[in-house]
Design goal:
The complex is a heterodimer of chains A (430) and B (488).
Chain A (H helix, E strand, L loop, with lengths): L1 H31 L4 H21 L2 E3 L3 E3 L1 H11 L14 H21 L6 H19 L9 H4 L5 H31 L3 H33 L3 H34 L1 H4 L7 H15 L4 H12 L22 H16 L5 H8 L6 H6 L5 H16 L5 H13 L7 H14 L2
Antiparallel strand pairs in A: 1-2
Helix pairs in contact in A: 1-4, 1-5, 1-7, 2-3, 2-4, 3-4, 3-5, 3-8, 3-9, 4-5, 5-7, 7-8, 8-9, 11-12, 11-16, 11-18, 12-14, 12-16, 13-14, 16-17
Chain B lengths: L17 H24 L6 H17 L13 H13 L1 H13 L7 H24 L13 H35 L3 H30 L8 H37 L9 H15 L4 H13 L9 H4 L7 H8 L1 H9 L6 H8 L21 H15 L11 H11 L6 H13 L9 H7 L8 H11 L13 H7 L2
Helix pairs in contact in B: 1-4, 1-5, 1-6, 2-3, 2-4, 3-4, 3-5, 3-6, 3-7, 4-5, 5-6, 6-7, 9-10, 9-15, 9-17, 10-14, 13-14, 14-15, 15-16
Classes of the chains: A mainly alpha (430), B mainly alpha (488).
């Protein structure tokens, strides 16, 4: 399909940009490498190189499977903004050298992850490198005032002024990175770009604040402390990284628990094997398609996984667990019981609301102006489709299921959601 | 963690004993004394006023936003960092002032007494840190130390670390006094437990405090360094708070869904919650660690989750169950394990769920394990399970009183239950009032004479079926010999 080809171009474009940047930087830095002054800067460059490699090895995964390496990014930002000091820190290197060294360090740091068979995505790395390049060029190369760069100008500034400028430059660099990341994710999930930009900012804001501050911190502390400042001042960020890691670990555990619980009805013989997870997967791709926010998507996922939980209160299982074939009153009761169970948790109220409304026909919205959550409408359609088609590869059965859903278009089902279903199915066939 | 007395733990329950008031007065006077001593050692200079104001404001902000309970018992206290940095930036007197201001003006609805105590304690801690810092040769004025890693590390970093330890110790000692007076906890035990939990965090505070000072004076960033240093920490705390929320949400979700299983079986409504509570109680008597208690609690909560795979008609059968039905019910521990084994953090609970119907005499199910072969947690869940069943009303009998139920468990100790666990339950019940659960008659009417597999008598019935011996020969489990042997 043409959209897929067009969209994956974003990945290729960012990858190529990153590679080109690395190459150019290597050439530009290599041209100056013969300078004798460069040798004085070698210890500084070396320490930063090691810091970035280590940071890259200990990368973390944020909620929403965002891979990032806070320590590496902060070290690279500090590298880009190093001003040199009398304590053995030389700043006698240019922007391209920062970019080239960072690129090599990121590549070296990724090797252990590759060996441990963890996925390394080149566009993600390229993306972070571009962010660092922005900081390095803004600080060391771009003439901002009467042909002089920030690096030239800062000698006349008081420290807090320099600190502010450093924060500003880090913020710009990280913003660029967030924008690029958002376009990458939009391409991957077929979601609208405006939506992924919002999601990306929300997800990255807290950590980015910590990163910009730490970048500035290290660069400033090098002046009195020398190179010791690099490991020392990365320590607060190390705590941050530890906390963020635990946060995303518990988020993963939570998801895992909900996934397992969604299988309770299957193991109890109420629903068909894999029904809940198929409905969840299909709901998610439709949610992306319909431009839902990441927060809403999480509720949608949980609701889709738990949509049949109400069946545990049935005395006798429904044949095949297919609620679409049950009487409307029974469907409503199951939905209600499910919502009650989920409401008991006290923390999944939104999910309960979605579950409560999952059987409501779409005409209630049209005729009575009832407020029906989009997630409920999605689950209704997905559940019907999966009850009718199952995971059968038989395309005739699937067409029949779609046809039957089309019969209820506008009355039972939201036409916009059904369209999204058709598109999502067409894509998954490729 | 700069631990303070919080609202959740008032220095006294009800009427304050006069000892508490005296103690607070003593602490306040010592704080003033220490501040005066600090002034004599290193008076505040005029240029320090701006720094003093900034640090006080930062202290106030941090104490006002402090999260008293972050899940997983991890937390940062920015106040400790600020108090420590004040030691090097301002000296002992300044640190004492920062400490006093931080808690005296705090925007919280603490009682006046609590506020005065916390303020006096923080002030004393600040002064002690400052005095120790100067005594071990910390640079009273950081500026002339100049640059260079070694001079700064030796002249500021190391003394600051010593001051940090002193602050940690004085925090623990002062706090232990008030807890001793108001709650009777022995001073030594309190100090040790507090050093165990917040000691390591204090090392972190020491490092960060040093970074703060370096950035403030030698790097020349001044008050603005607060923003830079605290930004990553703030993010860390934000993440920890999120972590705590998420963890609580997770626990609640699990327990609510465990309760969902009970909608199938009206008899057992609230059963898993109560068994979890009983397990927690016994974990206390058995002196289990925090983590082991959690594992045990989840095992108790989820022990019957496998009943979801048992057809409702069997669970609600009004007439007598056939041997086949009993066989079906007996599969529930294994089915439960199947259901939750993919949840990694329940790893430790799995064996307890699998074996919670084993008997000490080896006639239980599913594996027929004997005595110590049965995992400890499974033995605990078994006792909790039976105790809750006995103290809940059934259609054919009223709920047993607590003493009766315990006596019944004692009678079965050795044959069915582990005597040490029954004893642990008994100890737990001394500390915690347990009310038998009386179900509404209406509910009982709907369940009819339903079978309760948790009733110890049911265990005998099923043991009888499992072994070829005719059911009932030893079925009342009142084997006097075994019971006598088991009695402690």
């Amino acid at each position: 399909m043409t959209t897929r080809a067009r969209r994956s171009k974003v990945e290729v474009a960012i990858g190529v940009l990153g590679a080109a940047l690395t190459l150019l930087a290597l050439v530009a830095a290599g041209a100056r490498f013969a300078d004798t002054a460069m040798f004085a800067a070698l210890p500084t460059i070396g320490v930063f190189f090691v810091a970035i490699v280590i940071g890259e090895i200990f990368r973390i995964t944020l909620p929403g499977s965002r891979r990032t390496a806070p320590l590496a990014t902060a070290a690279a930002l500090a590298f880009a903004m190093t001003v040199g000091s009398t304590q053995g820190v030389s700043a006698d290197f240019n922007g391209p050298l920062v970019i080239a060294v960072t690129a090599v360090a990121m590549a070296v740091g990724s090797i252990p992850n590759l060996i441990r068979r963890k996925r390394v995505r080149l566009p993600d790395l390229a993306n972070r490198l571009i962010g660092i390049a922005v900081a390095a060029l803004l600080f060391r190369e771009v003439p901002v005032w009467e042909g002089r760069t920030v690096l030239d100008l800062q000698t006349a500034w008081p420290a807090y002024n320099l600190a502010l400028v450093m924060l500003l430059i880090s913020a710009i660099a990280l913003t660029v990175e967030i924008f690029l990341m958002a376009s990458l994710r939009a391409a991957r999930s077929y979601a609208p770009l405006t939506r992924t930009i919002q999601d990306e900012f929300r997800a990255a804001l807290a950590l980015s604040a910590a990163l910009s501050a730490t970048g500035a911190l290290v660069a400033l502390a090098e002046r009195p402390l020398g190179l010791v400042a690099i490991p020392l001042f990365l320590f607060p960020l190390f705590l941050t990284q530890f906390a963020v890691r635990r946060q995303s670990a518990i988020r993963r555990t939570y998801r895992q628990t909900i996934r397992t619980l969604s299988r309770l009805t299957e193991l109890g013989g109420y629903t068909e094997e894999g029904h809940a997870s198929r409905v969840a997967a299909l709901s998610m791709s439709m949610g992306h398609e319909l431009g839902m926010s990441e927060r809403d998507m999480l509720d949608l996922e949980y609701a889709a996984l738990l949509h049949d939980i109400g069946q545990v209160s049935l005395t006798e299982p429904i044949p095949g667990g297919a609620t679409v074939l049950a009487a409307p009153a029974d469907q409503r009761r199951i939905a209600h019981d499910g919502a009650e169970i989920v409401r008991q948790t006290g923390v999944l109220d939104k999910v309960a609301v979605i579950l409560e409304a999952q059987t409501t026909p779409f005409r209630q919205v049209r005729e009575f102006g009832e407020n029906l959550p989009l997630s409920s409408r999605i689950i209704k359609v997905c559940n019907a489709y999966d009850d009718l088609a199952g995971d059968s590869p038989d395309s005739a059965k699937r067409d029949a299921a779609i046809e039957r859903i089309h019969l209820g278009l506008g009355y039972e089902y939201d036409p916009r959601v059904v369209n999204a279903l058709v598109r999502a199915l067409a894509r998954s066939d490729q | 963690m700069n631990e303070t007395v919080s609202k959740g733990r008032p220095p006294s329950a009800g009427v304050p004993p006069h000892g508490v008031a005296t103690y607070i007065a003593v602490v306040s006077l010592s704080a003033v004394g220490l501040a005066v001593l600090g002034w004599l050692m290193h008076p505040l200079k005029q240029d320090d006023i701006l720094a003093l104001v900034v640090l006080c404001v930062m202290g106030l902000l941090s104490s006002s936003s402090a999260e008293s309970n972050i899940g997983g018992r991890i937390g940062f206290s920015f106040t400790s960092i600020i108090l420590l940095s004040a030691v090097a930036i301002l000296g002992p007197f300044g640190a004492a002032v920062v400490g006093a201001v931080t808690y005296l003006l705090v925007v919280k609805t603490d009682r006046f007494q609590v506020r005065v105590f916390n303020s006096a304690m923080a002030s004393a801690i600040g002064a002690v840190g400052g005095i120790v810092y100067l005594l071990v040769g910390g640079a009273s004025d950081v500026t002339p130390v100049g640059g260079g890693a070694w001079p700064l590390l030796l002249g500021v970093g190391l003394p600051l670390m010593v001051a940090d330890v002193a602050q940690c110790l004085s925090n623990a000692v002062i706090l232990s006094g008030i807890v001793r007076l108001s709650q009777g906890t022995p001073i030594r035990r309190f100090v040790l437990s507090m050093l165990g939990t917040s000691g390591p965090i204090y090392i972190g505070y020491g490092v960060i405090g040093f970074l703060f000072v370096v950035l403030w004076i030698p790097a020349g960033v001044g008050p603005f360094s607060g923003v830079l240093i605290l930004a990553p920490l703030f993010t860390a705390r934000w993440a920890f708070v999120q972590y705590g929320d998420e963890q609580r949400a997770h626990t609640r979700t699990l327990s609510a869904l465990a309760a969902a299983v009970e909608t199938k079986d009206l008899y057992t409504r609230g059963h898993s919650e109560r068994v979890a509570l009983l397990c927690e109680l016994m974990a206390g008597s058995l002196a289990l660690s925090h983590q082991a208690t959690e594992v045990l609690r989840f095992a108790g909560m989820l022990h019957d989750i496998g009943k979801l795979a048992v057809p409702t008609r069997v669970l609600r059968r009004a007439d007598r169950l056939s041997g086949e039905d009993l066989g079906t019910i007996a599969t529930h521990p294994e089915r439960g394990v199947e259901m939750v084994r993919d949840i990694e953090f329940l790893e430790g609970s799995i064996e307890a769920i699998r074996h919670h119907h084993e008997r000490m005499d080896g006639r239980g199910y599913p594996a027929g394990l004997r005595g110590e072969e049965i995992p400890l947690f499974a033995r605990v869940v078994a006792v909790a399970d039976a105790f809750d069943s006995l103290t809940t009303s059934r259609s054919h009998r009223d709920a047993h009183a607590v003493a009766e139920a315990v006596a019944e468990l004692h009678r079965r100790a050795g044959a069915q239950f582990d005597p040490t666990i029954v004893a642990a339950l008994e100890r737990g019940l001394v500390r915690h009032l347990w009310e038998p659960t009386r179900l509404e008659p209406r509910l009982m009417a709907t369940t009819g004479r339903a079978f309760d597999h948790d009733d110890p008598a049911a265990s005998d019935l099923m043991a009888g079926l499992a072994s070829s011996e005719p059911a009932g020969s030893e079925s009342d489990g009142a084997d006097p010999l075994l019971a006598r042997e088991a009695a402690p």
